[in-house]
Amino acid sequence: MSALIDTARDIARGKLEAVLPRRWSHVQAVAAKARSVAAAVPDEDRDVLVAAAWLHDVGYSPDLVDTGFHSLDGGRWLRRQRFDDRIAALVAHHSCAWLEAEERGLDAALADEFPREESAVADALCFSDMTTGPDGQDFEVLERLAEIRSRYGPDHLVTRFIIRAEPAMVAAVQRTQSRLSRRVPQPM
Predict the structure, then answer these.
(1) Of 24, 31, 155, 182, whose CB neighbour count within 10 A is largest?
(2) What region holds the HD domain (predicted)?
(3) In a domain? residue 98
(4) Cβ-proximal residues to 95 (8 Å cutoff; 6+ apart), any chain
(5) Is residue 174 included in any domain, yes or no?
(6) Which range of residues forms the domain containing residue 139?
(7) pLDDT single digits (tens) 141-177
């Protein structure tokens, strides 16, 4: 493992393991999934993908909460720590966060502070997050989105966000699956 990934894992562990053990289980499984789909991104981006997966939910840590929007709070904290700018931006925008930012009235802040990357890395990060349940279990993307909606209830801001984000999330998952199928030798 690279030093970048080791550092990201250690940060995530320090911020989540003791205070949010269920979130820590999710993060560990998302990072493992990111490693397993790393062939969907260029070689030079694989460490970035896995590091971002380790850090994608760091903004849930109670001592990092500022706005209450974990993506933005995590990205801001990483930037203050002088962590890699690209990873901070991937964290800030992970899994269609710009749509949740709109629901929260934080879309201008998110867009002003962090560039949104549209890439194989962003897709693979979304794939890893949106096919992994809250306890680290594997889900199909539509099952995961249904699980989130049921957990938050029909009138919650997160449910409204998930409904709006579903087409983009499903598309990111499908693009990642397509990239993987092109890179994996097929049986003859």
Answers:
(1) 31
(2) 23-114
(3) yes
(4) 56, 71, 125, 126, 129, 130, 165, 169
(5) yes
(6) 3-181
(7) 999 999 999 999 999 999 999 999 999 999 999 999 9
Tokens in use for 159?
Answer: 């449910």
In the predicted structure, residue 36 carries a pLDDT above the cut 50 = yes
Mean pLDDT estimate for the chain? 96
- Which tokens go with 85? 């700018």
CB neighbour class for 143 (10 Å; exposed up to 12, middle 13-18, buried from 19): middle
Specify if 188 maps to a domain: no
Which 8-state DSSP code applies to residue 116?
A: P
Burial, 51: exposed, middle or buried (Cβ in 10 Å; 0-12, 13-18, 19+)? Answer: buried
Tokens linked to 174: 């499908």
What's the pLDDT tens digit per position in 41-70?
Answer: 999 999 999 999 999 999 999 999 999 999
C-beta separation of 4 from 51 below 8 A: yes
Between CA 155 and CA 162 the distance in angstroms is: 12
Q: Which of 40, 113, 49, 120 is CA-nearest to residue 87?
A: 49
